[in-house]
Amino acid sequence: MGVLSEFKAFAVKGNVVDMAVGIIIGAAFGKIVSSFVGDVVMPPIGLLVGGVNFADLAVTLKAAAGDAPAVVLAYGKFIQSIIDFIIIAFAIFMGVKVINRLKREEAVAPAEPPVPTQEEVLLTEIRDLLKAQNDKS
């Protein structure tokens, strides 16, 4: 039973839950970016370079023979994946940049000086009294 309780304590920690939410949102964001690149960005680029559909760009290394499928090097899909990655990386970079700026602004805010404890107040009074006695002598 100890292992189950340890796992439960681990699983409900804030960091694990935050990480799970981040992974789910990241996967959904990846699909959105893939659709954006494949359906919005690449068609105009393909049109600009002579009506090329990047998803269809490939080199056949070995033609299909009987039941064996063709061996194809699909470099167009790879180009789309690189563009997906660049967009996602840039979005993450911008998000981290905003978070870091907010942390810096939070850190710059001046902290109020700590209120002296009762013990410190008493020690200060004793120091002042001793100093006053030494000055009289």
Give a concise summary.
The protein has helices at residues 2-11, 14-48, 75-108, 118-136, and strands at residues 59-62, 71-73. By secondary structure, it is mainly alpha-helical. Homopentamer.
Helix-strand layout with pairing:
Layout (H helix, E strand, L loop, with lengths): L1 H10 L2 H35 L10 E4 L8 E3 L1 H34 L9 H19 L1
Antiparallel strand pairs: 1-2
Helix pairs in contact: 2-3
Alpha carbon gap, first and last residue? 74 Å
Q: Which structural class do the helices and strands define?
A: mainly alpha
* CATH fold topology: Non-ribosomal Peptide Synthetase Peptidyl Carrier Protein, Chain A
Q: How confident is the prediction overall: mean pLDDT?
A: 85
Radius of gyration, in angstroms, nearest whole number: 32 Å
* DSSP strand content: 5-15%
Using DSSP, what is the number of strands?
2
Biggest sheet strand order reads: 1-2
Report the top-level CATH class: Mainly Alpha
Corresponding CATH architecture: Orthogonal Bundle
Shape: elongated
Q: What's the oligomerization state?
A: single chain
Q: Helices and strands, in N-to-C order?
A: HHEEHH
Number of domains: 1
Which spans of ≥5 residues are poorly predicted at pLDDT below 50? none
- Helical run tally: 4
Estimate the helix proportion, in percent.
over 70%
Kindly report the name of the CATH homologous superfamily.
Answer: Large-conductance mechanosensitive channel, MscL, domain 1
Q: How is the biggest beta sheet arranged? A: 2 strands, antiparallel
